[in-house]
Every structure is written in C-alpha cells, then in structure tokens.
Amino acid sequence: MRGKFLNAIKQYLCLSLLKNSALSAMAIFQLQCSIFMNLLSKFRSGLKKEIGMFFPMLILRVLENVLQPSFLQKMTVLNLLDKISQDPQIIIDIFVNYDCDVDASNIFERIVNGLLKTALGPPTGSTTALSPAQDITFRHESVKCLVSIIKSMGAWMDQQIRIGDLDLAKSPESSSAAESQLILNGEEGNASDHELHPDVNSEFSDAATLEQRRAYKIELHKGISLFNRKPSKGIEFLISNKKIGSSPEHVALFLKNTAGLDETKIGDYLGEREEFPLKVMHTYVDSFNFKGMDFGEAIRFFLQGFRLPGEAQKIDRIMEKFAERYCKCNPSSFSSADTAYVLAYSVIMLNTDAHNSMVKEKMTKADFVRNNRGIDDGKDLPEEYLGALYDQIVKNEIKMNADSSAPQNKQANSFNRLLGLDGIFNLVNWKQSEEKAVGANGLLIRHIQEQFKSNSRKSESAYHIVTDVAILRFMVEVCWGPMLAAFSVTLDQSDDRVATTQCLQGFRHAVHVTAVMGMQTQRDAFVTSVAKFTYLHCAGDMKQKNVDAVKAIISIAIEDGDHLYEAWEHILTCLSRIEHLQLLGEGAPSDATFFTTPNFESEEKALKTLGFSSFKKGTLQNPAMVAVVRGSSYDSTSIGVNASAILTTEQINNFISNLNLLDQIGNFELNHVFAHSQRLNGEAIVAFVKALCKVSISELQSPTDPRVFGLTKIVEIAHYNMNRIRLVWSRIWNVLSDFFVSVGLSENLSVAIFAMDSLRQLAMKFLEREELANYNFQNEFLRPFVIVMQKSNTTEIRELIVRCISQMVLSRVSNVKSGWKSVFMVFTAAAADERKNIVLLAFETMEKIVREFFPYITETETMTFTDCVRCLLTFTNSRFNSDVSLNAIAFLRFCAVRLADGGLVCNKKSNLDGPSVVLANGISDIQDHTDNDDHVSFWNPLLSGLSKLTSDPRSAIRKSSLEVLFNILKDHGHLFSYTFWNSIFRSVIFPVYNPVSGKREQDAHCPPSSVSVHNDGSTWDSETYSVAAECLIDLFVTFFDVVRSQLPGVVSVLTGFIRSPVQGPASTGVAGLVRLTGDLGSRLSEEEWKEIFLCLKDVAMSTVPGFMKVLRTMNKIEVPHISQASADLESSSDHDLTNDEFDDDNLQTATYVVSRTKNHIAMQLLIAQVATDLYKKHQLSLSAASIKVLTELYSSIALHAREMNRESILLKKLQKACSILEISGPPMVHFENESFQNHLNFLQNLHLHGHFVHDEINLEQELVDVCEKVLDIYLNCAGSVSSFHKSDTLSAPHRKLPLSSAKKEEIAARTSLVISALQGLSGLKKDSFRRYIPRFFHLLVDLVRSEHTSGEVQHALSNMFRSSVGQVIMD
C-alpha cells in the first residue's frame, strides 16, 4: 500500500507541481512550497530524485535571483528555508543525499551560497527592483536562515554524541534499537519521514564512505571544469586521478554520458588529430547504433551530444568516421561510405543555411538536389529521398540538447544538465501569462512525465542515513566561509539589535560545531571574528552590539571551553582588555605605576564637569588611557605613536559613555570564566593555561604599560586546579614552569619580583599537600626557582629566591620530599654567587637544615644526600668567608658519619651495584662494584669533593679538607670492600698528590725564560706536605691487608715528594718512605720490596733524559776562550771574567741551568741515600732480585754522574757564568764522588755479607769494575794519562805540569774515594786478586808514577803492594 501511495505522488502530485511551476500567481506558488515542504518532511526517502528536481526549480531559482526577485516569492522561499533549517535531520539528509552524491546537484552548498548572496545584497553599482526596506528584510531573513542551519547542525551533533554516550552504557541488543530513533520529530508533532518509511530505499552509511563519495565528486567536477577550459589537460587530470580509465573506450564513454561538459570542447577534442584523441573519436562514434535509422535522423541523433568544431579538418575527420559507422550499421543504404560522407557534409551545410539568420538567400530544394548529383559512386540518389531529407532539415533544425536552453551561467548550466533539468528551467523561464499556462509546451511536459514514469519503473538510488557526526566536518567545509562572511558583514554594517543578536547567535553556534568537531582553522576564524567585534581594542568606538559581542565571548568560553584549545588566547585577551577598561573606568592607577616611576603629577580632584566622578585628571591623560581611547589594531599590544596627544573633551565624553555600556558585564562574569576552569577536561585545561601564559607574557612585556592581570589569574587558576589528578596537574605545571622562568628572567625587575612572589605563593600552597615516596613532582614544581637562580643576572631576584626557598623549607620541612633536590640546587647556585650576602644567607639556611633537619633530607629519597653533599662542597669554595668553607667541610664530616651510621633511612641496598659509579666531577668510574658496597654512589661525591679541596689555594682549607678526608677514610674504611678501596685510591687519594707525584717534565723543553725555578705546580707548604704524607702512610698501614695492592702507587707518591726540587717535600718523602717500610717491616713480601726499589730506580732514571736536554742548552751559548779542546781548558781558567762575555738572555739561561743542576744532583743523592738506609735496615728481608735492582740503581746513578762530569766544556761555561753571577757552582765532583762511594760501599758490604747473591750477581767483577773506574778518574784528574789509555807501541813524553788551585782541591776531594777503591781491591781473596790484577795493575803503576797524588794515596798504595801484590809475586 505504501509503495502505491508513493507511486501516486510521483505520477500525479509531482506532475501537477511541474505543470504549475511557471505560474506567477502568489497563492499557487505558496501552495506549491507548502506541498514541497510536506514532501520533503515526510516522503524524502522515497522521492529522492523528484525532490532533487524540484529543489532547484522551486527554491534555488528564486533564492539565487538577487537583482530582480519577486519580493513575495522570495520571502516565501526564505520562510520555507527557515522551516527546513529548523529540522536538523532534513539539513543532514539534504547534504548526505545530494551534495555527497556524484549524480546529484550540491543542493546544500547552493542553499548556503544563495543565502550568502541575499545577505550581502545586490552588488554595488547594479540595478535592482528592491526597495531599501525590502533589501534589509531579505538580508535579515537570510541571516536568520543561516543561523538556523548552523544551530540545527549543532543540535544534531549534540544529539548524536548523547546517543553515542548512551550506547556505550547499553548492551548491543538495546543499542540496535536506538538506531531507529535517530531523527528529531518533524514540525507540528508529525512523525518524521524515517518513522513513516523506515524501509524505503534507505541505508545507513558511515561518514568515511560518504567522504569518499564527496571527494570523488569534487575531483570529478574539478576535472570537468579543467576539460571545459583545456580538454586535453582535463582528460589527463581525470586519468591520472583515476576518475576515468586510461583506454579510449573509457574516455569516449565519459564524453558521451557525463553531464556538465562543454559541448563545444567535446567537439574540439573529438576532432584532434593526435593518436589518442583520434582513437577516442573512433570509439565515440562506434558507440552509436544507427541501424534502421533514416540518414537525417541518424545525423541528428549523432550531433545531440556535442557541437561540431569550427575547423574544417576537424569536421572532416568526424564526418568521415560518422559515414563509415552509418554504412556499417546500414550496409544497403549507400554504395559506399563516400556517398554518406558527402551527403553528411551537404546536410550540415543545409542546416546552417536554413537556420542562420545571417544568410539572406536560402538554399532551395532544387539547389540541394543539384548539389548532391553523382555522389553515389557516379550515380544520383533518388530525388524523392533527397527532397524528404531537405524538408526534414528545414522544418526541424539539427541542434544539441543544450541549444534549447536560455543563456545561463556555466555553473548553473552544469548543474541543470547534471539533473536533466534543462527543459524544466526552459519551461519555467519562458515568459508566459497565467492563462497561457504551458499549453504550447505540451510536448515538453509529456517528455518530463515520461521521465517520471521511467523513474518510477527504475530502482531508486539508495537514500542514505548517517549517524556519524564526522559528516559535519564536510558540511562545515562547505558552509563556514559563507556563514562567516554573512555574519561578519551584517554585524559590521547593521546596528539593528535583532540582526546583530542573530549574527552573534550564529557565531556561537558555529564556534560550538567547529570546536567540538576539532576544526581548528574554522573555529579560530569564528572566535577571532567575535573577538574583533568586541571593539575592546578601540573602546572609543564601542556600541551596544560590541558589548553583546563581549557577552558572546564569555558565553563561548563557558559553554565550549573544553574544545577551544588555541582559540582561548583570543578570549583571554578580550577578558584582559575588559579588566583594563574597568580599572580605567574606576580611576584606579594602572599596573605600570607599580613597576615604573610615575611620569605624571599627583592626581587632582575629580573632574565633576565630565559627570564621571571616578575619573581623575591624571588618569584621563595618562598614556594608557590615551591609547585606549584613540584605539589601535586588534593585534596591537602597545601604545600608539600619537598616544602622547591630549584628548579632547568630546573624545573623553564618548569614552565615558562607552565605559558605562561595559557596566553590563560585572566582575562575576569575568571571574566565572576562570572559576569554571575547574570543570574543563584534562586537555582543555592545559590549552587554557598555555593561552593564559601567552596573554600574560604579552601584558608583562609591554614597554610602556605592563600589566599583571594574567599573572594574578595564573595564580588563581593554579589554586583552582591544584586538586586535579597528578597526570593532568603535571602537564599544567610544565606550561606554568616555563612561564615563570620566562617572566622571572624579565628585564623589568618589578615584574620579575612579582612573578617570583607569585610562584612562592603557589609553592607554599602546594607544599601543604603530602607527597608519597619516589614521586618527583615537588622537584618539578620548584624547578623554576632553580633555573631563574642559575640564569638571572639580577641580585635582587637571586636574593629573593634564596629567601623564598628558605622560608618554604623551614616552614614546611616535614612536607618536603622530592623538593629537596631543587632546594639544594638553589643553594648550590647561591653558594657560587658573587654577592656575599646571598652566600651567607643561603649557608645560614643550609646550616640549619643539616644540623636540625638532616633526617628529613633522605626520608623518602636517598639520592638527595648526594645533592646535599654537592651543595656543601660548593660552599667550601666560597671566597667571601673562610668560616663558611670550614663549617661546610665540618658538615661534610657530619654527613659522612651519618652515612656510615646508616643515616639514610630508606633503600640502603638500592642502586649500589650499577655498572659504574659517577663521580662528582662527572667522570665515570669504570670499575664494576660487584661486591655490593653499601652506598658507593653516596661516598664517591663526598670523598671526591674533599679530594679536590686539598688543592685549594687557601692553606686552612687545604689542611682541613686533607685531615677530614683521611679521618673519614680511617674512621669508616672498615666498611669498604677491596673493590671500593681500589676505586678510592684511584679516584680520590692519588689525585690529591697529583701536583707532586705527577710532576711533569715537559718544562725541560720550555725556554728557560718561561719556566719558574719553583715549578712543581703545587700550592702546598712544607707543613701540608708533611701532613699529607703522614695521613697517607697512616691510612695505608692501617688497612694494609686490604689495600696492599696499592703499594706501588703509594711509593710513587712518596718518591714523587723526593723528586721535588724543594727541600721540604723531598725530606718529607724520604722520611715517609723510611717510616712506611719501618712500620710495615716484615709484612712486606720480597716482591713488594722489589717494587719499592724499582720505584726508586724509576724515579732516579726517569728525570735524566729531560735534565740532560736542559744541561746541553749551554752548548748554544758561545763563550770566548772556551772553544778550544779540553787540553787547553786549564790555560784559559785564569782569564779575567767580564759580563760582556754573557748577554742577559744567556745569563738567564745559565742561571736556570745551574738551579736545575743543583736540584737534580740533590735528588739523585737523596735517592741513593734512601736506598742505602732501606738496605741497612732491612737487608735481611731482601731477596737477590731486590739486591740486583739496588745494584743497578747505584750503578746507573754513578754512571750518570760520570757522564755529567765528562761535559767539560759545558762545565767550564757554567763555572764562568757562576763566577759572573757570584753564585756557587753545582757540586759536580761531589756528586760523582758520592755516587761511586755509595756504589763501592754497597758492593763491599755485599762482598762481606751477601753470600746469597753470588749466584745472581758477579760481585767481585762488579767491584773490580767500579774500582777501575775510580782509579782512572783520579789519574785523569791528577794530570796523568793512565796506561789504560796509552798505546801499546807509542810512549808518550812525560813532563811535569803545574796544577791550578781548583785541580788541587778536586784531587783532595777524590782522595778518600781512591783509598776506598784500593782497600776494596786489597780485600779480594788471593785467587780473585791474582785473576783480576792484570786488569788494574797498570793503573797501580800510573799511581806510583803520578807526581800529584797525596800522601794518603801513596800510603794506601804501599800497603796494597805489601799485602796483596807482594804475595802474588812471592807465590
């Protein structure tokens, strides 16, 4: 039954509407609109195609007529559209089923654009039949319709969202039932179309499918538009975007069946000679079936789809193919295709001749027959055939479908043809009287009637129903631009309260839809427009509509705050400006007066003549007021260039009047926006805070009028939202933290102070809340204080931060948890401050924290202990007050005690065995602590910090830190494992002695003028050296069993002392080494003794190469009389010495070399002395390997001394320089004597007592070698060339030479050494003496012959001959 009823509507009612559509009677038009409204409301799902036809014919035709409309008709249409737009489901269905349908017109888009054209009125300069009153009525009504449309879209969206929320709470069975109730009821309580006909060609579609269809439609129309300009480009575009296939068949089908194509362009494309268009043309022609058609009928049918091009060659190609196709469909019609080709040309010429008004002399039938003689393969076609063809063409012109349409714009033409409405619009546009009706066009009416019947027989296209709100995105993309333009223009140009109220309502609904749908660009455009219409940036021009815009802004903020995001900035800017104007209205001073020095005189009495007692003269004429009254651009935040001009009385009166309008907006409304922030969702509150921070920074950065409105509101907002879940609050604080840092570093001191005080208020409030263990939010909350403290260049700000932190900590100490990290970071920055009062203020609080509140520091987080230690270490470096540094060191000792006693109350075993320990200096200790040392990560920063302090330039700090460091290690070392002790020695203890033990030798390569004589690089004094050595030895001896592997390092430290050129450290090193070995005694293994002597040997030999380079720098100095051979040196020794022989640079070099030589000799002898002392005390504990090392040590020192004394020319230069400088020369002879004496004594002692080393060392041979060298040295000194150096064949002449006093002194100095050597040789056993006497007998003979040997030597020599040589001879 329902189907029959719909068919009846189609057959009778729709046809009746069609027949009467051209009547101009108002009553009939109104009845048609009423009927159409009922069809649309109740039967649209079954009449999709019919409604698609009648919408343009009844509604859009009238709506789009802007210049010459019928007032009553257009008002009727506008009222109808208002009713339609109040039904949300109808609006959605129109867009879904027409604008998203490839085969339908964009009805929703045309409605919106038509309403925009009406709202804007006739174009400027155009002629219109409307009166001004009628035009204004149209404008207001069209705006009303647009508001209804966007309001309905919002209502549908809200309904679908609510249904979706309900569906989440329902079972799947119940949710399916809800889908049938999707549509708001129609007007007057009638059931909706979907309730009456739920199953008539309806299907539910998702937004994604419709998006694809709409995108396809848009792309297709873009290709059609491009084709209508450049056919080849259009086809390429459509193929590349896969809107049509790439084969000629697909393109031909597109050209034949697609509406909206320009027929002329189709003809041009089909006539192209390129390969692909030619294939398309052939395919296009072959798609026609001319079978059984008369030739005239066939050519008329063929030319309906396109217009023949004007170029003859193109026509030729098309007609040639047409003739071929006709003959193929009708093989018996002509003898060949040539006949059809020529006849087709004749028919085209006849059609043009008969129906072109420009042709005066028309072609007759006889002319036509004559023109076509002999075309059928030389024969004539039947004259009757040609006559009938002539009559057919003359009576009925061959023309395209579009040729019957009245001229219209191209876009309308495309849409009309798209729906097959060309004939309908042609019918409607004909000027006919009511009486004439459509009589003469009965044929056309019957044609449309047949179309209705055929549509009724066809299966209707599906009617789509959408419940997905995403479809609104596509609707908004279509309508937002026209709506924005219509609302903005009307609001700007009209002062009618009803019209402006409607526009503001439209803005509110548009913001609601775009915000909820997440369409940022569109949302921001609407919000910005409303914000600009508030005119708060130029209050002197405000009107009531602008105040209404302010109210709309506040409503938007409260109603749609969850979805505004970036648009909040515009809203909050408006609120800031409102507050500014209200303050000006109250006569209150601007915020700038608190930040800058006033530039105006004191305020005078109120200007009662202005009738606004709150204003004062100073207020009215200050720059801020002038800027507001004069106005600026919406985006301007600073005072204009003319702000200094004096305001006129008229301007002031207008401004006061406008401020009275703002009284409609109270503080409650303003504050409500901020209080309402508590109800915003998590994402929205973050966006709100970001925008508020941005506005506040803009206020504060104003160079002339800084304001704190935003800053105070930020504090309020933080208070309002402090109870939010931690996840959201953390995101809020990330934004606020950056804000407070930025403002805290402001160049305007007062602004920065205000910001820091605001942050303090928030922090105090936040510290009232409990924080659980292992959370980090307190630390994040206090981080802005840290960053500003570290980066601010302003003393006042840094002092304020220290005071704020001190106050917060001391008043809320029990609540501070993770915040300790930031607290210590602030105090660390304060400790390094350049201002003494800041350092002392911070340390005062730090002292109180450590003394009284230490347990709170590590109550929930043990790592804060490290932060505390680093802070104290920074205080130790304070250069303002040594008491602060000493107290800080004492507190470090206290921290160590608490750490050792288990003062870190939680997580004692956590995080201790990581792969590496990060030291205080940031260097990673690579050693793995796999033995679970307690609190390794806590000990390291403390010990490393104290280690660094030992090199402090202040003596008291050095000593204190040294004592505290080793006291801590000694007191608590029992807690440390072997692995951790190794780490301590490597990273804590040995670095203390690096300036000494790590003394660099590269100064040997430096020019003497750049090297200080006291070049050890250490700032320690003798007392510090002594204390350092004692501490090291005590610690090492105490924990020897655990740390004995560090013995080489400890010995290196002590030998480094010995290496020092300063007497104090060297003596300390000797005493230390002796004490170390004495205290350890038998606890040292043979291998460890060997290590000790190897260290001594290494120290002795490692300095030799560098020293010899320094000594040989004297070779570069040329000195007269010292360039001869060594044989002439003696004769030159008595020359007069003058400064002229040395320039200043040479004297400086010589001074440096002498100093280095003395130091070097002293060090070498000291090492030998240490070795001798150790040997004497512990010889019973030494192994043969250790004795061998000692032997090598003595030998190397002696040989080195001998090598130095052979540099005779250098020594002579040094001697001469010392004489000039009047300083003593280096004791070269003494060095050589002592070195050989030590070596000789050692070997003699071994010879007597060291039987156990005979297997390792040939002592007798070693002893003979040394004695032989001693005798040779003595003979050379006495002027006697030993037989050792004589030739076996030549005898040198012997003559007596006088000796200088220096030589006599040298011989006397060497006498005891020679006597020791002779005694050593005498001490050899008989067999040994007999075996070795051939090696040294010639030396004994030379001694006998020498004229300069002393009596003691002669006596020792005679004893030797008597006791040893004589026995050999006797035997």
Automatic annotation (TrEMBL):
The keyword Disulfide bond does not apply. The keyword Thylakoid does not apply. SUPFAM superfamilies: ARM repeat, Sec7 domain. It is found in: Cytoplasm, Cytosol; Membrane. Residues 209-396 form the SEC7 domain. GO terms for cellular component: cytosol; membrane. Keywords: Cytoplasm, Guanine-nucleotide releasing factor, Membrane, Transport. PROSITE patterns: SEC7. One of its GO terms (molecular function) is guanyl-nucleotide exchange factor activity. It is a peripheral membrane protein. SMART domains: Sec7. It holds the Pfam family Sec7-like_HUS. Homodimer. This is SEC7 domain-containing protein. It comes from Flemingia macrophylla.
